[in-house]
Amino acid sequence: MNKFDRITHSFFYEIVKKDTNSDGMLNHDDNKAIYHSNFDGTRLAVVLEETNDVLGINQIDAGQTVIFHSKDGKNEAVVVDNSNGEIVKKSDLPLAN
Prior knowledge:
Largest sheet: 4 strands, antiparallel
Order of helices and strands: EEEEEEE
Low-confidence stretches: none
Distance between the termini: 41 Å
Shape: globular
């Protein structure tokens, strides 16, 4: 199987729910929620209720994805089970200087 033959099993979504910076707009400057669903949109689940910024999302393997994010001045990595969207591990990350 080459890198273009991969099968999609699930999706992650960044959703802005409210105007957290009070600028009158819902956009990338507001806090976000991270959701997970199966490839067909079923089993929608909240992974992170509120985060300031998503720094990156990388699939580790077919079963897990890591999400790097910042919240309240802290950086964190969360490992998510791709089958159900549940967090299986959290780790604090150092802040950049």
